[in-house]
Amino acid sequence: MEAMMTGMINNIFFIIFPIILYQMFATAGQRNFFVSHRITMTILFSISIILCMVFPYQFLTEDYIFDLRQVPMIVGALYGGPLVSAVLFIVSAVGRIAIGGDGMYIAILNQLLVAAGVPFLGPLYRKVNRWWKAALVFIISIVSLLFNMFAGYFFFGDPIHNLIGIWLMLMLNQGGIIILTALLIEHLQKQEYLYNSLMRHEKMETVSHFAAAVSHELRNPLQSVKGFVQLLQEYEYPRAKQLEFQQTILEEIKVAEDLIDDYLIYAKPVYGEMKRIEVEPELSHVIKIMTPYANARNVEIFVQGSDAASPILGDSQKLHQALVNIIRNGIEAMTDGGKLQVELETSAHTVCVHIQDEGVGMTKEQVKRLGEPYFSNKSKGTGLGLMVTYSILNQMGGDITVESEVGKGTKFTLEFPKLPNG
Q1: What is the 8-class DSSP label of residue 380?
Q2: What angle do the packed helices 316-333 and 279-296 form, to 10 degrees?
Q3: Distance CA 196, CA 404 (A)
């Protein structure tokens, strides 16, 4: 009994494991295993058939050896169609001929009937629900075993009444396992369908967020331009006033252009503009620019530099933009003022910029969503600044890590690969 259970478990493992293995290593979003990947399915089920035949097990009596090769044959024929079924039949027939022994011709004939007839049930099988599928594979399995039983009686004179208990147990054994296999496949397919649906939903949601962000951000400068143009059309202003309005119009148009450039940065690589730059002077320049803004909000910036060289491959203008976005967010997070710590750290292989504020902080869920389109902790924010910042860092081969605690502040670490000195 122990040997029988060990052999049965081995056969079940030979059937189930290839299916699980494929799902583990398949590319996300492209795992429509039992529809689009028939070659892979054929190879895996062929291996299952061979292993089941090489490692059979005795069933209830030492005179009766059994294996589960029909499970991958039937399942492969239903999901893969005639071509897959034909290949699996050849593999099974060659293996059975190599094993030889009594009942070889009956086994091959049985396999031929399965390979020829089961694929025609495929269209019906794919239309019914999972429980009808389980019932159908169980019935096919039973019919196949009944064929073997009656063929043994007619060709070899095997007394059916003496072996009916064994055959019933075989039917329940193989039928139960093939139901388990079919339900597992259906479960994996359902999970894949849900995964692909979620991916499509997220893509559509991203597009809608982009549209909302563009609409929200562009409306303000366009409304200003529209208002000044209407004023110039309706009233006669002195030349000096007209020039003032025109200058304001140009500034608002520049705001709209910068906004569009920000969105293009998110989608458009900047590799053509990459060159060797030193982070320390670039960081000093940004601190100089942001200091008046910090002072106006009662925020004091403390800088801790590094004497070591800090060369990286990047674009100075884009680096300025990324640093400004994070420093501005840190300043704005401290509504009652505070200290903003900026530290440049260099090592043998990396250059890191640490930016830490004493602001309101964020929850772990909010930290995970940083960089998503249209996600912002600000009441009127669109998340565009950090979205662009994450894209810039990615294009420059860098990385961003965020540590934050509600009520205690946030620390951003920008890490870049360091170029060799020289």
Answers
A1: T
A2: 30
A3: 32
The span from the CA of 132 to the CA of 78, in Å, is: 13
pLDDT of residue 344: 93
User: Residue 372's CB: how many other CB atoms inside 10 A?
Assistant: 16
- Cα Rg of the chain (Å, integer): 35
> What CATH code would you report for 2-201?
1.10.1760.20
pLDDT in tens, 286-298: 898 888 888 888 9
The per-residue pLDDT for 380 is 46
Domain 275-417 sits in CATH at 3.30.565.10
Question: How many CB atoms within 10 Å of residue 333?
Answer: 21
Closest CA to 144 of 250, 242, 71, 212: 71
For the chain, give every domain's residue range. Answer: 2-201, 206-271, 275-417
Cα–Cα distance measured from residue 244 to residue 237, given in angstroms and rounded to the nearest whole number: 10
82's CB contacts (< 8 A; 6+ apart) are 119
- Do residues 358 and 411 make contact, with C-beta atoms less than 8 angstroms apart? no
- CB crowding 162-179: b at 16 or more within 10 Å, else e: ebeebbeebbebbbebbb
Q: 206-271 architecture in CATH? A: Orthogonal Bundle (1.10)
Closest residue by Cα to residue 141 from 110, 120, 105, 116:
110
Nearest to 345 by CA among 411, 269, 404, 299: 411
Name residues of the chain where pLDDT drops below 50: 28-29, 31, 271, 374, 379-382
